[in-house]
Amino acid sequence: MMSTIDRAVVLHSRKYKESSLLLTLWLKDHGKLNAIARTNKKSHGIYQPFSLLNVDIKIMPAAESLANICFAECEKSFSMGSYLSQLARMYLNEVLYWLLPHDHHDAALFDSYLLVVQELVSDDITKLLRYFELQLLESLGYGFQVDYDEQHKMMNEDHYYAMAPLSAFYQTTAESGISGKYIKQLQQPVSSWDNDTLQVLQKLIRINLNACLQGRALKTRELLISYLRNQNA
């Protein structure tokens, strides 16, 4: 058993016995883990999603074992924002809950998450979500290779490419592929993408995310799609 102090966010929580919570936490320096938090009326409200916590926690050596939270305090609570931005935050938490391995440590990804959650306050969510999805795929080892295709040939903006999930791009025809000029934009900040680029590249991101999820349907994604469809009706 190892005792440590770390920054953490709550990805998922449910009641566990009368005065305890079963939490899935993401710790900045120790990754995702499951933990028991014993609560009272005063401390129960600390373990809310979209809050940055400082926790004193005892971590068991086996990944499947439950950690024990000795003490927790809220360092920062992020403002609520719009309904759509809240759905977007919930979507991020659900993606992380299912995709982050328990032994995966990435402090930079943790910081990116905090940045995105802080910025998700309005209905302008699309680029922020795509940015974080790209960071997550890269962290998991499934980032896009945009310099060379599967034949190890330099990718060309004037050529057209397709890809199988979680694989390198391969050259194809204009009728069945995506222009290399769009694919090259994966190297650029998401904030610089125009609407056409965003429409094309988010399809590629979705292909790889769906492959990582292995067909699992995300409830929050369905809620987002339904809400946006109703708004545009």
Derived structural class: alpha+beta
Strand order within the widest beta sheet: 1-2-3-5-4
Number of helices: 6
Task: Characterize the largest beta sheet: strand count, sense, and whether it forms a barrel.
Answer: 5 strands, mixed, barrel
Taken from the alpha-carbon principal axes, the silhouette is elongated
The percent range for strand residues is: 25-35%
Question: Termini separation (Å)?
Answer: 55 Å
Radius of gyration: 20 Å
Tell me what you see in this structure.
- The protein is α+β, with helices and mostly antiparallel strands.
- The protein is 35% helix and 26% strand.
- It has six helices and eight strands, in the order βββββαααβββααα.
- It has helices at residues 83-99, 107-119, 126-139, 180-183, 195-213, 219-232; strands at residues 2-15, 20-27, 31-38, 51-59, 67-77, 160-163, 169-172, 178-179.
- The strands form two sheets. It has a five-stranded mixed barrel with strand order 1-2-3-5-4. A three-stranded antiparallel β-sheet has the order 7-6-8.
- A hairpin with a 4-residue loop joins β1 and β2.
- The model has no long low-confidence stretch (mean pLDDT 93).
- One of its GO terms (biological process) is double-strand break repair.
- Involved in DNA repair and RecF pathway recombination.
- InterPro entries: DNA_rep/recomb_RecO_N, NA-bd_OB-fold, RecO, RecO_C.
